[in-house]
Amino acid sequence: MTVHQPLELHLGPLAFTGFGLAVLMAFLVAQVVCETELERRGQEAGYIGDLVLAAVIGGLLGAKMWYVVASGEWEAVFRRGGFVWYGGFLGGVVAVLLNGWRLRVPPRWTMELTAVALPVGYALGRVGCFLVNDDYGIPTTLPWGVKFPQGL
After folding, report:
1. How many whole angstroms separate alpha carbon 83 and alpha carbon 91?
2. CA Rg, the chain, in Å?
């Protein structure tokens, strides 16, 4: 199979990439996973939206800052791409723990709860990378391999 163009949707002046849509889905699914787990345990799930918002802000800022520091490309702060998973993970953890502290949720409880959603969110983010022809691996001649002639 050959993928010629990255997934991009245009709604008027706005452009949505496959990566952006996958990241959005990752955070939404992570929220549902956390809420479902809390309800399964008979706990109140009302504060999960606050933690997810903190994860979005901290994760995106951390991912961008890690890229900028690692690459030395300071102008990349204002570019559309340039996000690194490690920075997103660290930024998200810090933001979620700080917001949990603000809400008086014990750190152990916050980490235990969000650990269930993290792999799901990460997997959806990797699908987003695939949808924009990024992070596709090494060349292969296997029949199920995918070609990205205009890959990033």
Report:
1. 12
2. 17
